[in-house]
Amino acid sequence: MANLAVPFPSEQPAGYEWLDDEPGFDPGIHLAIEPPKVLTWLTDLGYKQTDIASTATPIAFSEPFRVLSPLGASVMLDTARRLEPFKARARERIENMVRGGCYRSRWLRDLCLSPEVTEAMAQIYGVPVAPHSMPVHLGHMNFAPTTVGEPVDKWHHDTLALDYVMMVTDPANLPGGRFEIFLGTKGEASALAAEGRQPPDDRILRPKFPGPGWAIALHGNMVVHRGASLTKAAERITMVNGYVGLDRRVDDQSRSRDLIGVDDPGVLATEWARHAAWRGMGRLGLLVDELQFGIDSNSAADQLESAIVDVRRAIDDLRSEPPPIEHYERINTDTKEIK
């Protein structure tokens, strides 16, 4: 498939089986892409140019836009329900999620790798992109928590730079559970959390999704957001699909160490190493093509060191213990209550 950063594995990892009786993904009948007209920029959230100079795109998020046709939305919901039994280990940020679904559902895999959707995302971000080089970031699904009143997902920024969040269940039928965006920076969210406070209501955007199969594009690593609490028990499912910018001169913006203890370790290590190698190969290739005569030894060493920064970081993180999951809701360690 064209425009993939790293080829999707031709074999399934051990322990994964394909769902049976799935329809084949057909972009002609399952997609109904309607590009967004309104985009919000990182500078609109309060970021300075120096904050975003090395990021993948200056775009923060889009308004909700349509991705799936009614038939596609129906297949997406059925697929999510069939994958729900394969939930990942719960962590302190989010209780119920499915990872690695593209190793179990061919339909989901082909949607997440769809060139048509990828091109739509590239148009939104204004830069060339590809489906994420780590398939654990493709087709991630969030489900409602067990306890009513708990956030579906706490205030956070994503472990990857670029993604979309799609409503799988019909948002019109949900009692609460709105998707919320903090209209501020990560630094501001961190300062609020340090004071035991959450984003004030007048700085929260709650986009209206017209129906299932509609999505919002995010600069996920830079935009603080969450899935709010339901007011009564209900089925709430969202799907998140990740992308990478193809310009490897910009920062990786990944926080893959947060995936330790969440994803299947036999899958994560391989995908992580391949992603880091892809990043390093791109940067080293630029040195081969562009390095000029006349530099001194220190400059040459600095450029080589910069080219392999993602590889060295991956080596260190892969050998480390799982860190606390980052989020912006302070937990009272005496009562275990979210402030």
Describe the structure.
This protein has 339 residues and is of the alpha+beta class. The chain folds into 2 domains: 27-254, q2cbj1_9rhob like domain (Jelly Rolls), CATH 2.60.120.620; 270-318. The chain is 28% helix and 18% strand. It contains 9 helices and 14 strands. It has helices spanning 27-30, 49-52, 70-83, 106-112, 115-125, 186-194, 265-290, 297-307, 309-318; strands at 31-34, 39-41, 59-62, 65-68, 97-98, 129-131, 140-143, 151-156, 162-167, 179-182, 204-205, 214-218, 225-229, 237-245. Strands 1, 4, 5, 6, 7, 9, 12 and 14 form an 8-stranded antiparallel sheet that branches. Helix 7 packs antiparallel against helix 8 and helix 7 (265-290) packs antiparallel against helix 9 (309-318). The longest helix has 26 residues, at 265-290. Mean pLDDT is 93; it is low at 331-339.
- CATH-level-4 superfamily name of the largest domain: q2cbj1_9rhob like domain
Mean pLDDT: 93
Euclidean distance between termini CA atoms: 46 Å
Listing every helix as H and every strand as E from the N terminus to the C terminus, the arrangement reads HEEHEEHEHHEEEEEHEEEEHHH
Number of strands: 14
* Rg: 20 Å
User: Low-confidence parts, pLDDT < 50 over ≥5 residues?
Assistant: 331-339
The top level CATH class name of the largest domain: Mainly Beta
Helix content: 25-40%
Integer tally of domains: 2
- Please name the CATH topology of the largest domain: Jelly Rolls
Oligomer: single chain
Based on the coordinates given, report the CATH architecture of the largest domain.
Sandwich
Classification by helices and strands: alpha+beta
Largest sheet: 8 strands, antiparallel
